[in-house]
User: What shape does this take?
Amino acid sequence: MLKPFDRQLQYCAYCPKLCRCACPVSNAEARETIIPQQKMQFLHLLHRGQLSWHHDFTQVLYACAACRACTSYCKHPVDVGPALLAGRAAAVAAGAGHPSLEDFDFTFRYRLPKLREAARAQLPKARFSDEAEGAIYPGCEAIATAPGDVLRTLAVLDRLGADYLRLFDGDELCAGYPLWAAGYSDAFRAHAERVARAFRRYRKIVCGCPACVHVLRRRYAEVGVRLETEIVDLTEFLEGFIGLIPVMQQVPELFFHDPCYLGRFLGNFDGPRRVLDALTPRRYEFSWNRGDSACCGGGGVLPRTAPLTAAAMAEARLSEVVEAGVSLLATACPTCKRRLGEAAARLHARDGGTAIEVLGLIDVLDRATS
Assistant: This one.
């Protein structure tokens, strides 16, 4: 499973660490051993058999949010995140995975029916359909932690004239990103096959999670699972309504945070900005934005393997917003919204100052069109 990464591993193993500054994980922990080059050097030595597949040597593979920031600085460019995730799969196969992810494949599968129960209990039953031209696939993050976001999505889509979209009806309410990121490759492929079968009932899936979109478009094909359904990111879908949005009121000035998977993986930096510019008189940019955007700490199952580091990354991301005294921050990813929102609450409780409200793209649209 590491053979496709031979070139990348060799390049990183002998690299003069050009991407050291870019890794938000190593910046949060201030440890040289987990800069991207060192993590890839460890994986290179494991792959060549110069280190054994033992917990002592594999844990460094999990100090990664798979955010691709380091790739933005690489001259070659090496895709470090997916390589380290492949290394995690090799570690799991060797019985040397991360202790906090033990039996993760079982707990993942056990959770899916509960997500469907939660969706059915909290969302309008009339919007579910097991067969439709187009369906909304909100993703597990929204269903589990923010069903109100899904309700607002439905309300906004209705105002835009997209009330024909139904809600996906099935147990497979997660595309499988956590399985891929945790290194459970066999379980990921089996889950991908189930999702592909469930999606056949729909011509188009509009997905509210950029990480899910990346997995559906790219990672399924890599494990031999073909999707017959068109996959559209929610931000891409909303872009089609620019110029047609029934704006009732402008939303106050705000910062915009680039989600890693929407930007660096899907290549969509301008879309959310075009939507926001139709809704607010002033949009602020972070100093580190677009391809240089700093990760919120929500990727690569980092909140599970290194929760304190993930929290520190989110708080560091907000420092510029705090300094500017701006009270609104928008993003276009449910995981980013949750992680940054939790960090904003911690900062305000601890330090006082301006309270920062973190909004999703749908939240901003909802306020502007209400």
Remarks:
- The chain has three domains: 3-97, 101-239, 254-369.
- Residues 345 and 351 are 10 Å apart (CA to CA).
- The first strand starts at residue 128 and ends at 129.
- The beta strands are 128-129, 132-137, 166-168, 202-207, 230-233, 254-257, 283-285, 328-331, 357-360.
